[in-house]
């Protein structure tokens, strides 16, 4: 992947992210990152002419055998997109994909719906986009603004899409997936692609001085961006860059994904850890948080740029496809099994209720207390000693249910007598027993530190004023401490809640947290903790499901 393509790869994903529950977001990013059938000829059900039924069956089988090699070959063309969809790839290799082969052209832009993989667990659709225009190597990155699937009743269903450039074929390969599946063996559906646009990367030099740890504002006034404000601060060995971008064009705010680029000569330096972008502030402006190693920023040759992508071309049109999605080929390999297996870890309970196995995936449903999450960060499924990748996905419609999905890779044969074990790994517990106040004394522009105990862990607190705002940072050298969620202070009968300005993904080894209290006035304060986390990355909970 070249430099320019690497910059734009993240723009071609459409995975959901919810605030402020970043743990849930990461679970969804993990279960969906890149790393489910044939043209069916129905067999007549007529009882008056039995010989025709046999002839039709032979015809259907002949068509299936003829189409299978073509459908199987599809897997190679979408190889990159299916790297983390092993079950879909396996189904395609077995010829279990449903060939669609429909194309529509609008203003010289062609979208082709190639193949669908439909079973009891999901619907996956492989498509391509041919723009007959400039390529990523020439600075154009195309995307489809919206992909919508509607069921037979015309109701939209939730899904996500991803696009990758295929340099050999000179077109974009796409994949759309939804948890919706036909309620019967088959169902009509409408798949609509709306508005294709090309974006191109832009770099804008910045005279940023992050080591001063002062808020800095830059007038940009180009391409719909009015102003950029950067608030740097130190957190351990990292420098956090919190940025706010003010737009005067709503469409620009939706697509530009502005961020700070740090360069050493011509080389762009990598961030240190995961960042967060796109969350609007109280004024609706675009915000982002990035972290870099402080040692990298201390080098004399370092320079800074505002990076974003602007729209350079657009085709406002709809490409609508009438589909008949069919899971007939998958039914013989589909097994539903009711479960009633209770799990408990330190008072948190969950019950595994159902396991649905298809040729592409094993889906396990679990019931839990409303909005409760079982306290583990990772999950796997072991089938006859083979580890299946996957994880948990929060239910979109039922807060009392958690769904676990595991891909079935090529070569794995699951039989009735197969030993299946559900494995929960890396315990992360939420605790609310830290009631003692954290005393902050003689608050000033000078950084001060204190040590306190939180749940038996030694926690280091740093606090100081910056531009009239009170910053409170917490961290612990004990990796068993998972971090403070958020702090607050009492103001008479009310309480002021610290604004959380650092977001960690639980289980990433980073227990640092920073809250800010804007416009703080005073010399002393007592702050309190809503809750904190503890972690045991070696903890496993193993549960036998079958036999």
Brief characterization of the structure:
With 547 residues, the chain is mainly beta. The strands form seven sheets. A six-stranded antiparallel sheet has the order 5-4-8-16-12-13. A five-stranded antiparallel sheet has the order 1-2-3-7-6, covered by helices on one side. The chain has a five-stranded antiparallel sheet with strand order 9-10-11-15-14.
Instruction: Specify Rg, calculated over alpha carbons.
Output: 27 Å
Total strands: the figure is 35
Query: What do the pLDDT scores average to?
Result: 85
What is the tally of helical segments? 7
Main sheet specs = 6 strands, antiparallel
Strand content is over 45%
**What is the molecular shape?**
globular
Order of strands across the widest beta sheet?
A: 5-4-8-16-12-13
Protein name: DUF4179 domain-containing protein
Organism: Paenibacillus mesotrionivorans
Give a written overview of the molecule.
By secondary structure, the protein is mainly beta. It contains seven helices and 35 strands. A hairpin with a 2-residue loop joins strand 26 (448-454) and strand 27. The protein is globular. The model is unreliable at 1-68 (pLDDT under 50).
List the SSEs and their pairings.
Blueprint: H1 3-8, H2 22-32, H3 50-77, H4 86-93, E1 98-106, E2 109-118, E3 123-130, E4 141-150, E5 156-157, E6 159-166, E7 171-178, E8 186-206, E9 216-222, E10 225-235, E11 238-247, H5 250-255, E12 259-264, E13 267-268, E14 276-280, E15 286-293, H6 294-297, E16 302-326, H7 328-331, E17 335-345, E18 348-357, E19 361-368, E20 376-383, E21 386-388, E22 390-394, E23 401-407, E24 420-431, E25 438-440, E26 448-454, E27 457-466, E28 469-475, E29 481-484, E30 487-491, E31 494-497, E32 499-500, E33 513-517, E34 525-529, E35 532-546
Antiparallel strand pairs: 1-2, 2-3, 3-7, 4-5, 4-8, 6-7, 8-16, 9-10, 10-11, 11-15, 12-13, 12-16, 14-15, 17-18, 18-19, 19-23, 20-21, 20-24, 22-23, 24-35, 25-34, 26-27, 27-28, 28-33, 29-35, 30-31, 30-34, 32-33
């Amino acid at each position: 992947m070249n430099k320019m393509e690497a910059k734009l790869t993240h723009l071609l994903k459409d995975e959901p992210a919810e605030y402020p529950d970043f743990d849930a977001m990461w679970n969804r990013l993990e279960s969906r990152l890149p790393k489910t059938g044939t043209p069916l000829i129905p067999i007549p059900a007529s009882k008056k002419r039995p010989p025709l039924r046999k002839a039709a069956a032979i015809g259907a089988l002949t068509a299936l055998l003829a189409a299978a090699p073509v459908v199987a070959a599809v897997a190679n063309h979408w190889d990159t997109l299916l790297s983390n969809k092993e079950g879909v790839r396996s189904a395609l290799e077995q010829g279990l994909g449903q060939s669609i082969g429909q194309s529509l052209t609008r203003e010289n832009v062609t979208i082709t719906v190639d193949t669908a993989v439909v079973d009891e667990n999901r619907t996956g659709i492989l498509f391509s986009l041919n723009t007959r225009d400039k390529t990523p190597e020439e600075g154009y990155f195309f995307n489809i603004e919206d992909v919508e699937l509607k069921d037979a009743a015309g109701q939209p269903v939730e899904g996500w899409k991803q696009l990758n450039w295929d340099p050999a074929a000179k077109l974009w390969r796409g994949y759309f997936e939804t948890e919706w599946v036909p309620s019967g063996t088959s169902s009509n559906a409408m798949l609509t692609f709306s508005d294709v646009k090309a974006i191109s990367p832009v770099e804008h030099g910045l005279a940023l001085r992050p080591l001063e740890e002062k808020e800095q504002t830059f007038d940009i006034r180009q391409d719909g961006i009015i102003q950029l404000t950067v608030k740097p601060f130190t957190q351990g060995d990292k420098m956090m860059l919190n940025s706010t971008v003010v737009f005067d064009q709503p469409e620009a705010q939706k697509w530009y994904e502005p961020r700070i680029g740090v360069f050493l000569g011509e080389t762009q330096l990598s961030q240190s850890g995961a960042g967060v972008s796109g969350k609007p502030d109280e004024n609706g402006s675009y915000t982002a948080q990035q972290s870099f190693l402080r040692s990298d920023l201390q080098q004399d040759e370092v320079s800074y740029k505002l990076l974003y992508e602007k729209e350079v071309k657009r085709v406002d049109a709809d490409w609508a496809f009438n589909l008949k999605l069919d899971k007939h080929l998958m039914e013989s390999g589909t097994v539903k099994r009711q479960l009633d297996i209770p799990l408990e870890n330190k008072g948190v309970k969950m019950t595994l209720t159902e396991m649905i196995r298809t040729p592409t995936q094993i889906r396990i449903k679990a019931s839990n207390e409303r909005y409760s999450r079982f306290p583990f960060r990772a999950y796997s499924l072991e089938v006859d000693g083979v580890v299946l990748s996957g994880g948990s996905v929060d239910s979109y419609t039922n807060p009392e249910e958690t769904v676990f999905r595991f891909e079935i890779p090529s070569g794995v044969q699951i039989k009735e007598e197969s030993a299946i074990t559900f494995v929960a790994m890396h315990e992360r517990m939420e605790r609310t027993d830290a009631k003692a106040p954290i005393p902050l004394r003689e608050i000033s522009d000078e950084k001060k530190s204190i040590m306190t105990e939180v749940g038996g862990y030694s926690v280091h607190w740093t606090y100081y004023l910056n531009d009239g705002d009170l910053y409170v940072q917490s961290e612990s050298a004990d990796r068993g401490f998972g971090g403070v969620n958020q702090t607050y202070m009492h103001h008479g009968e009310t309480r002021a809640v610290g604004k959380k300005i650092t977001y960690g993904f639980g289980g990433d080894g980073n227990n640092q947290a920073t809250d800010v209290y804007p416009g703080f006035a005073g010399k002393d304060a007592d702050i309190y903790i809503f809750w904190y986390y503890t972690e045991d990355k070696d903890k496993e909970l193993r549960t036998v499901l079958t036999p």
